[in-house]
Amino acid sequence: MSKEVVIDTAKLNRMMDKVKGLPDKLFREKTMSIIATKEKNRIFLRTVGGTGTDGNKFKPYNANYALAAGKLSVNDVNLTSGGKGSMLSQMTVSATDSTARIFFNTDEKSDLARKHEEGKGVPKRAFFGISDQDGDDIYDEYLDVTEKLLKKDGFE
To answer: pLDDT tens digit string along 8-60?
Structure first.
């Protein structure tokens, strides 16, 4: 089973009573893709910084795991860092007019992400999700993007 974060229009609608009644064209593939790409970048930066979706720092690895995984120290979060071929570098975005998905583009990295989320066989690292702050940021980005698109299309 693939691990993914889903941002859909139903969630956005619940968050944005202010934009009810605006044209359906507000939910466009381009808009959803921009929002998801920004969220993917937030997930990447937060995780590389050693912080989970709950805002807490990841617990240090135990010494045996750190040694076996080639860590420089028990605090090294390199397993989820952004080097080529790393788990985070395999995050991908796809979008339609109504839904954006952030997911891992290989089964191997998707499985590794799920294991970290669940703490199965590897240290638990709850990193792949939308935090409360992310939700606020998504809302603000949606308003910014749609405002620009509306102006471009002649809506003032």
So the answer is: 777 776 666 555 555 555 667 888 899 999 999 999 888 888 888 888 888 77
Give the sheet arrangement for strand 91-95, strand by strand: 4-8, 99-104, 91-95
What share of residues in the chain are helix, strand, coil (percent, to 5)?
Answer: 50, 10, 40
Helix (H, G, I), strand (E, B) or coil at 124: coil
Rounded alpha-carbon distances, angstroms, from residue 125 to 11, 88, 96, 112, 130: 25, 13, 29, 11, 14
Q: How many residues does the chain have?
A: 156
Element (H, E) at 5: strand 4-8
Task: Please tell me whether the overall predicted TM-score, pTM, comes out greater than 0.90 for this model.
Answer: no
Is there a contact between 35 and 29 (Cβ–Cβ < 8 Å)? no
Q: Cα(95)–Cα(123) distance, rounded to whole angstroms? A: 31
Structure tokens at 80: 């989820």
